[in-house]
Design a protein that fits this description.
Elements: E1 16-18, E2 21-23, E3 30-31, E4 58-60, E5 64-65, E6 72-73, E7 78-79, E8 83-84, E9 91-95, E10 99-103, E11 108-110
Antiparallel strand pairs: 1-2, 2-3, 4-7, 4-11, 5-6, 8-9, 9-10
Length: 111
């Protein structure tokens, strides 16, 4: 059996693989392998697998509709000085002509 990491929530050593996720049977926590670094810090990666950091510049890889309006963030839009946050939309930023937004890292690439 391959060496599994300990659970990041309860530090249990009884972690197992369930499809693409790792699961802790003691606390029920599920996570993707490679999403938690050695120090317990979450790493957020772009569409190409590059690790993103606060202050990076990114480019949007597909047209994204802005929820609640008729605006669209076009493919190729450059976004400077991003801020990483936890959650489904893991990038906070300001886009010229649109304003403050949250983006998913799977739709951006690092420059």
């Amino acid at each position: 059996m391959e060496n599994m990491p300990n659970c990041p929530q309860c530090n249990s050593e009884y972690v197992y693989s369930d499809g693409t996720n790792l699961v802790c049977p003691e606390c029920g926590h599920e996570w993707l392998p490679g999403s938690v670094a050695e120090g317990g810090e979450a790493q957020i990666k772009d569409a190409n697998g590059n690790v993103l950091n606060d202050g990076d510049t990114i480019v949007v890889t597909k047209d994204l509709k802005v929820k609640g309006s008729s605006l669209v963030v076009k493919q190729g839009t450059k976004v400077k000085n991003i801020r990483l946050v936890e959650g489904d939309h893991d990038i906070d930023c300001k886009i010229d002509g649109i304003g403050a937004m949250s983006l998913k890292s799977e739709f951006v690439k690092k420059i």
